[in-house]
Amino acid sequence: MIHPSAIVSSRARLGVGVRIGAFSIVHDNVDLGDGCEIGSHCEIGHPSARSGGRPLVIGASSLVRSHSVFYEGSTFGERLVTGHRVTVREGTEAGVNLQIGTLGDIQGTCRIGDYVRFHSNVHIGQHSTVGSFVWIFPYVVLTNDPHPPSEVMRGVTLEDYVAVATMSLVLPGVRIGRGALVGAHSSVSRDVDVDTVVAGAPAKPVCPTADIKLRDGSGQPAYPWRRHFHRGYPDAVVEAWLAEFGHGKAAPTKDHE
Question: Which of 33, 54, 53, 57 is nearest to 44 (CA)?
Answer without folding.
Answer: 57
